Amino acid sequence: MSIDLQFDRQHLWHPYTSMASPLPVYPVRSADGCKLYLDDGRVLIDGTSSWWAAIHGYNHPQLNAAVSAQLQQMSHVMFGGITHAPAVALGKLLLELVPANLQHIFYADSGSIAVEVALKMALQYQLALGNPQKSRVLSLRKAYHGDTFATMALCDPVDGMHAMFQAQLTLHLFAPAPTRAFNEDWQSADGDALRAMFAQHHQQLAAFVLEPVLQGAGGMRLYHPQYLRLARELCDQYQVLLICDEIATGFGRTGKLFAVDHAGIQPDIMCLGKALSGGYITLAATLCSSTVADGISRGAVGALMHGPTYMANPLACAVACASLKIIQTGIWQTQVAQIEQQLQLLKPLVQYPAVKAVRVLGAVGIVEMNGNIDVAKAQALMVAQGVWIRPFGNLFYLMPPYIIQTAELEQLIAALQFIVQQDVLHQAQALPGA
Length: 434
What we know:
This protein is α/β, with parallel strands linked by helices. It has helices at 5-11, 49-52, 61-71, 85-97, 111-128, 149-152, 192-201, 225-238, 290-297, 314-328, 331-343, 375-384, 406-419; strands at 28-32, 35-38, 43-46, 102-108, 136-140, 173-175, 205-210, 214-215, 221-222, 241-245, 269-272, 284-289, 355-361, 364-369, 372-373, 387-388, 395-398, 425-426. A hairpin with a 5-residue loop joins strand 8 and strand 9 (221-222). Helix 3 runs antiparallel to helix 10.
């Protein structure tokens, strides 16, 4: 079946683009392994794992089999008053992997909703404990937590992609973004701003939410794990819940199974998504400690007031089980370590005038430019190089599937080496968005 690009251009609204002057789209006919096969016969090596989700690549036989088998039973059933084997099996697998204190799982249907559920948990918990004054949330500058209204309110209110909506958003508190880089020596003064925020506002704070170690769509910033340890200490000191948004970082992306493992801490609430289902079907989860679950459940309302129609979708849970069983083999550790070693070849790109910085951690390679990228021009050049890399703002990044072969990653790196030497920057403000 051919793809009607004229209809697409006139009627289909793609992410972070204009209907009046949309960015070009490239029609994909099929995908396999780390390759995207275009309608015109060209083949692209995927450097983004479809927004960081397809960690095992495309058309994976084990994941395909899980979907096919579940489809013969049922594709969906409501989770209200009903349960099913894939949801229970996935829950058991998750509890074998996540920090030990996280014992309760709320399934959601997207990462943004998982963060919204986490906020509800925190607010209901504080209400149940008789702390109605603890109704605000502390977030970080340069943060990104989603595109729905509650999650937009947690994103950077000045430099974030949702700044235009500030008048309609809940007013939260924001601490300065961590500045100490991942591999630098931590100094006690690096935590002074966060200590001051807690000392001044703790009586109002229900929770502190952050993306551990890697701030994603807010700027692809890597920061020191000691910041997480300090956050845990301050939350304990001031009776504030710590919410860790692991939607982008979970399941091995940063070289640890979860980014919080770099600091050896346990959050009170954790949000998972993206790679949870291996990039097959939208699925997310919000996990919390027994302390949080018991507090909510013993409150005046008792129930957690949320219930997505497609929560715990059987197809999604079944393929997530298959994905997590691959994770449990531990092969991801070797794969991610090899990717990290190869991504070091990006480091010399800092010699080029257009490049501001290069950062690498786990299966993440980031090239920060000295200006905003002309997305249409850059993507056309990269497609001509046989790769799919999705820039945003002033950033190029590689977050490939873990199964990527050495030669495939070599091609992605070579393409970036070529692109940063081309004139792909412009002075006009680029449309934000990952």
